Give the backbone structure.
Amino acid sequence: MKKIISFALLITLGLVFFQCKNSNTQQVAEAEAKARAAQAKLDSIERANRQPTPEERQQAKQDMEEGKMPSVSIKERGKVNPVDEGQASPSFRDFRRGLITAIEDKNVSYLMERVSDKIKYSFTENDGKEGFKKAWGLDVNSTESGIWQELKKILSLGGNFEDPEKTIFTAPYVHTTFTQGYDPNEYAVVTGQGVRMREKSSRSSRNLDVLSYDIVRLLPNPSPRVERIGKERHPWIKIQTESGTEGYVYGKYIHSPTDNRVSFEKDGEDWKMFLFLKGSEADASPTESVPDTLN
């Protein structure tokens, strides 16, 4: 009997040792993955903080004056100037061009073919491509989904590669290069040049100021007025400038670092959208990932 008990104990200890070994292996793998992600983030920050050469600075200023996206970001106090590193990768540039065309055509099939099976679209529940499709109303009356307007806006706002190999791209630039020292939940960026700030939430209202890539404070505005201008409908956002002036900016021309952002990863010769998310880990709640259905 003692031999049987001893043998059983040995088997039990062996199983425990095997489980611990596997657990340690899994923990090590998870730690390594986190370390790689952290290093990629540091590399991205270092590239974002790199000071452009005088020639790059001059070209970037010229691009902004002409309404183009510069390939480097110029640091200015109180501003987040635009940048688009996507131009540096021919494969991503072509991919994005095709995606924008599909968005303008509201082509659901084309879009979904370029969505990863593991797409993250919520901090709470993620049910893959089908869950993403339902969350944005692409399964029923897809032409009325707010995703078309939102994706078009985001992709027009440049972005940055998150790794030296240029295999992960995140947009918009507001999310990737937002200035430290400002609370991303309280501040946003005016994403255009010569954007008018109005006294009231109407384009016919008196002009108070003209803003270009300025960081502004978001003010409480429980029931924002939504206005259609051209083919788009956006709310008027109540803001306060650095000088203390309060007014309204049309929502098309303002973006918060915690607003929707999108990330793409190179998968062989293709690119896949693996993240389309709003909010932050710190303040995430089920209501914060509800898609905008203004359209």
